[in-house]
Amino acid sequence: MFRRLAISFGAAASIILLIASLVIIYEVHYHLMMFEEDVKGFGESSALVHHFEQALLSSIIWTAAGSLILVAVISYFVAKNLSRPLVQMRKAAEKMAGGELEVRIETIGNDELNDLGTSLNELASQLQKQEEARKTLTADVAHELRTPLATVKSHIEAIEDGIFDPTPERMSGLREEIDRLIYLVQDLEQLTDMESPQFTLKKESVNLGELLLKNAEPLKASFTQKGVLLNLNTQGNTVVEADPKRIAQIMFNLMSNALKYTPSGGRVNAEVFEEIGSVVLAVKDTGIGIKEAELDRIFDRFYRTEKSRNREYGGSGIGLTIAKKLVDAHCGDIWVESKPGYGTAFYVRLYK
Ligand SMILES: Nc1ncnc2c1ncn2[C@@H]1O[C@H](COP(=O)(O)OP(=O)(O)O)[C@@H](O)[C@H]1O
Ligand SMILES: [Mg+2]
């Protein structure tokens, strides 16, 4: 780059000098000839003309030589200055490719080179963020897998060593642990699916009220079994453009949470109602509630409140993350209101 610039500068300067010299020599010679013709008897002083031409030629040669050196020196520095940021960027890009994502390019001023530098810096910080997210995800997944796997392993070892009898309860306990692992893997699959660039919604006109009634059906048995009352309610025109499968997923995640975190004897109200310009889904329970300090963290990946970390509730902590991502994909809003000991209400608003 630098060499190419220097060569182009040098070549342009030499060509200009050459043309200028030729023109000067030709013009001077031509005019002197005319002068000789005009002024008779000039022949005697032709030595003067000769010396004059000689002086002119040498001064042109010296000027040309001096200018060429000057151009060479100037173009060397100009080219070096121009190519320096490019060289710096190339080096930075090579470092980034090698995994050193903390490198940044110095950007001063606001020309195109600087814009390029800024873009490269942004690229690096995006890559850095993704890399960090990937690391935490891997660490979290490893952590989530470790506990159930360790439990299953120690139980099986105890059974093998004859310390534990493989009673039906123990076996079903083991199966539950394995189920938990399966759910975790399914949740993770969904989450990756949603985060992939290929993720798209298959939108159509959906009646959210009807969808709620339909999707609550298979859950009714679990509610009855636990002794939690499920009330369903829908009001107004609840048709919106949405992906029915994804909305069903949101409803399932919210309702199964409500069931999970509501003790028997409690109640869950799931409703869909029309508001001006939007449709709202509300899932309200009379369950254990969530502390205010934890409210804004429950949508985080793997986050579970202190209370729900024990075996009794133990989920993966991904259900709400998935729900939020799906609501975001629909450009809707999701929020929660809760009072520990009294209950929790989750709301989803989708715009018409
Ligand atoms: N209806 C609810 N009542 C009380 N706490 C809830 C409710 N829904 C969610 N939570 C809290 O939010 C956390 C995250 O929810 P979620 O992402 O669905 O994970 P989990 O797999 O634990 O259900 C839960 O662990 C629980 O602590
Ligand atoms: Mg859940």
UniProtKB/TrEMBL annotation:
Q: Which reaction does it catalyse?
A: ATP + protein L-histidine = ADP + protein N-phospho-L-histidine
Select a single GO molecular function from the record's annotations and give it: phosphoprotein phosphatase activity
What domain of life is recorded for the organism?
A: Bacteria
Q: What is the lineage of its organism?
A: Bacteria, Bacillati, Bacillota, Bacilli, Bacillales
Recite the UniProt keywords alphabetically: ATP-binding, Cell membrane, Coiled coil, Kinase, Membrane, Nucleotide-binding, Phosphoprotein, Transferase, Transmembrane, Transmembrane helix, Two-component regulatory system
The UniProt entry, under Pfam families, shows: HAMP, HATPase_c, HisKA
Coiled-coil ranges per the record?
Answer: 113-140
Q: What is this protein called?
A: histidine kinase
User: What compartments host this protein?
Assistant: Cell membrane
